[in-house]
Amino acid sequence: MAGVTPWYLKKPRVPATGAKRPRRKAPGALERPVQRGVIELLETLGLRVAAVPNGAMLAGNAASRARLMKALKKDGLRPGFPDLIVMGRKPGQIGVLECKREKDGRLSVEQKEWRDFFIEVGHPWACVTSVDEALAAIKSWGWLA
């Protein structure tokens, strides 16, 4: 459809005042340690894992971060894309994992759209908040005994 902006190119919503809301830290493990633990586990099981650094913190002032983000989007960065791409030991075994903190880890609108896309095209997708959940997901995909 002409004139319609794809969801992955839309600008994030900003509060009406333009001020940032203070970030509230939820209890429980943060996302990064969960993701690192999942990577370590899956690699010890002989699976290949690649991280997608969509949540990376950019350096510089607001203007330079905005320019860099614009360039990264042109280079293929897509908001909401899953954190980990997992490749199994057999042809065609490609799945994705979205890692979330143990408490209050919610999917964004963009993450839900990516989830729906992967499921629609037949690639395994899972949202995990622990190493145990990641292991259960991989087993549910039929990749491990």
Automatic annotation (TrEMBL):
<keyword id="KW-0540">Nuclease</keyword>
<feature type="domain" description="VRR-NUC">
    <location>
        <begin position="47"/>
        <end position="132"/>
    </location>
</feature>
<dbReference type="GO" id="GO:0003676">
    <property type="term" value="F:nucleic acid binding"/>
</dbReference>
<dbReference type="GO" id="GO:0004518">
    <property type="term" value="F:nuclease activity"/>
</dbReference>
<dbReference type="Pfam" id="PF08774">
    <property type="entry name" value="VRR_NUC"/>
</dbReference>
<keyword id="KW-0378">Hydrolase</keyword>
<dbReference type="GO" id="GO:0016788">
    <property type="term" value="F:hydrolase activity, acting on ester bonds"/>
</dbReference>
<dbReference type="InterPro" id="IPR014883">
    <property type="entry name" value="VRR_NUC"/>
</dbReference>
<protein>
    <recommendedName>
        <fullName>VRR-NUC domain-containing protein</fullName>
    </recommendedName>
</protein>
<dbReference type="InterPro" id="IPR011856">
    <property type="entry name" value="tRNA_endonuc-like_dom_sf"/>
</dbReference>
